[in-house]
Amino acid sequence: MYPELSFKQQTGAGLPVAIFVITVLALLVTGMAQLQESSANSVSLQIQSQRAFLAAESGAQLGVGRALQPISGPQCFSGTFSFTVGGLKECSAIVSCFTNAPGQGVVIRSEGRCGISTPSEGKRAVEVRLL
């Protein structure tokens, strides 16, 4: 009634197709993992850069405050501020102050650095002119 089937008559492409699908899926998963890792690194660099900018702004504000002290008169301050609390922890601002020609005012330059000596180190600079 039923014809006898032998394994010699069966030819199929199941195994090669399965290997191909598994390989393609493995490549997709690997690519997505690398994309996720690079995205995480990018976010980390962006955060460090923003923190460095805020450190530079804070350093500039400290420099302006020192330059415009009403009690002891204007002082041009240059130095380094290290932040130890809050969002600027482990950040620093290098402030340099110099005067232009007489009557041209004071220039305060502040460079903020965060994550020093790490792969995701951030550096930003701010310059303020006081006339």
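Above is the first protein from milestone M3; the second protein from the same milestone is given next.
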Amino acid sequence: MVKRLQLHQGRPAMLSDNPLYTPVHLTSSVRNRGRVYATSQDGVTWQTVSYRQFHH
């Protein structure tokens, strides 16, 4: 899943652009596996620029 890292109600959380999905508050069980870098001119069509996987 791809989410944006933001504060939600004063706590770090992963938020979806889709309002049907509730925020996922960060706990010790959440692991960052990588980052997706993409651009969009219209918010609908996305062009992937790069992906960087984290090695744990």
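Note on the second protein: Residues 46 and 54 are 22 Å apart (CA to CA).
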